[in-house]
Write a structure and sequence with these properties.
168 residues, alpha/beta, Spore Coat Polysaccharide Biosynthesis Protein SpsA, Chain A, six-stranded mixed beta sheet, 4 helices, 21% helix, 20% strand, globular
């Protein structure tokens, strides 16, 4: 009998370039989440130095994707090709996630089928009193306008970068 593989709910995609220590912090933060949803973690290394790559390779229970050179945020696309999850959470490695954040984001998308993505409140990593508009979002498995499948239609749709309706 063939093995039935349960689809993962969320793939976290953490982008890293010569900042392995921050990537370790991001992974620890993800693993501390209190969530009912299954997830996996990809780190996309954007062509880091060898000593940084060695540190990334030592992180347990992640899927490391190594790129030969820094291609910026286009590197997220490397993980999209490998993920089979319903949602993808895109982030840099300078992030610390709030315990219940994932369930709030997933519940919103599950209950709002017309929404393509949702963005959490993002506080500045170094000054927690400032809201930062840096790019972290949970999406229906697409990035940069390229759809993984036709689930959201094939027309170009304007997607606002960040909304303010989410409550703490």
């Amino acid at each position: 009998m063939p093995e039935i593989v349960k689809k993962t709910k969320v793939s976290f995609v953490v982008l890293s370039f010569n900042d392995a220590e921050n990537a370790i912090g991001a992974v620890k933060s993800i693993k501390r989440l209190k969530t009912e949803h299954s997830y996996d973690i990809y780190i996309v290394d954007n062509g880091s130095w060898e000593n940084e790559k060695k540190i990334l390779k030592s992180i347990k229970k992640i899927k490391l994707i190594e790129l030969d050179k820094n291609i910026g945020t286009a590197a997220y696309d490397a993980a999209i090709k490998k993920s089979n999850s319903e949602y993808i959470f895109f982030t840099g490695c300078d992030v610390e996630l709030k315990d219940d954040m994932l369930d709030m984001l997933v519940d919103f998308l599950d209950n709002n089928k017309n929404a393509a993505q949702v963005t959490p409140k993002y506080l500045n990593f170094y000054d927690r009193k400032k809201i930062d508009l840096a790019g972290t979002w949970l999406s229906r498995s697409f990035y940069s306008g390229t759809f993984k499948n036709n689930a959201l239609g094939n027309e170009a749709v304007e997607i606002p970068y960040m909304g303010t309706n989410f409550q703490e």
